[in-house]
Each structure stands twice: as C-alpha cells, then as structure tokens.
Amino acid sequence: MSSRDKYLAIGLIVLIFLGIGVFLLSDDSYVSIYVNGTDTLVKSFSINVFNNNSAMNQEIFQFIKVDVNDVNSNVDTIRSNITEIAHSYGYKDVTVKIESQFGENQLPMMTSVVGRSMLPKIHDGEKIIVLKTKDINVGDVVVAKDDEFGLLIKRVGEIKGNNVFLISDNVKETRMENGVLTTFVGVRKWTHLSNIVGIAKIYNVQIN
C-alpha cells in the first residue's frame, strides 16, 4: 500500500470515528407520553449514551401526573413543559408525543363530583374522567371553571356563540337537613366557552 493510500485509509477511519462520535453525542430526544386519567407512562429514546434518560423520565413522570389534572393545562402547555425538562438534560431537538385512550393529542383528567345536582346519572363523590376539549354540544355533560363554585359538573342546555348555558339534571330536590325539610334547586347559569374544561367521558372510576 502506497503512502497516499495509507493516508486515505487513516483519513477514512478518522471520519468514521468522528461520525460515530457525533451520532452517539446527538442532542435529539423523542419522548412518548401515555395518560388515561389515572395512570401515566413515560418513555424516551435518544442515541446519546451519556445523558441520564432514567432521571429525565422520572422528572417528566412526576410533572405530568400532577399537571394532567390541572384544569388550566392542555396538550400545548404540557408539551412545552416536557420540552423544557428535556432541554435541562442537554437535549436541544425534542419531539414529544402525547396519547391517551381517546387518541393522540387528546388529554384526559380525573375529577371528583361534589353535590347531588347531577343525580341520577352522577353521584356525590363519584370520580369521573374528563376529556379536555372545548368542542362541545348540547346534551354533553361538561366540567366548567366557575368563580363561585370552583368547578361545576353540568349538562349543556344551550349554546349561543361563545356562551354556554349549564343546567343540572337534578332540577329540584327536597330532603331533610338537620331536621328541617329543605328544597334544593340545581344550578342553572350561563358561562363563557373559555371556562369549559372538557366533557365527562368515563363515570364511576375506581382507583386501586
């Protein structure tokens, strides 16, 4: 082998090792999230052998199991926050995929019912899974943010533009309270579409 061929061979070997080094030190990461309202699964994939994906996955898991049940979170905010977590572990190009039992980019949350206004369909203390969406129709049972009550779980009675009329299934109920016969009237009120958290999809959720 001539000196020229030797130099070419050495140069080729150096390029190969440089390529392998760049490959192994890649700052790309793919994060897959699966949530169903009660459980969370986090998986991540990257070629970089020096980054601590186990610690990153655990941090993402701790974040998402809380944030998914925040009434103000959505797919975009969760994806942005997960991307920031991945950035803190040295990844620059981050792809985040979010899936649930309702499909890709469909975010569920769990909440508990307070009160008897949705009897007989939903009972006081019952846990339900809500699909976060503002794409609602008359007749849907929805969760809505409310300044007076915190969270309302009501049926959509009417929609006018961006205004939604919420009604109770249990319109009026008379029962004994502290020895006094008392009549309770279910909430009926208008709210803005922006206050809608989502649609109730799964009822009587049991937590093991």
From TrEMBL:
Transmembrane portions of the chain: 7-26
Entry's Gene Ontology molecular function annotations: serine-type endopeptidase activity
Pfam families tied to this protein: Peptidase_S24
EC number: 3.4.21.88
Listed InterPro entries: LexA/Signal_pep-like_sf (IPR036286), Peptidase_S24_S26A/B/C (IPR015927)
UniProtKB keywords: Hydrolase, Membrane, Transmembrane, Transmembrane helix
The protein, known as: LexA repressor
Species for this entry: Methanobrevibacter curvatus
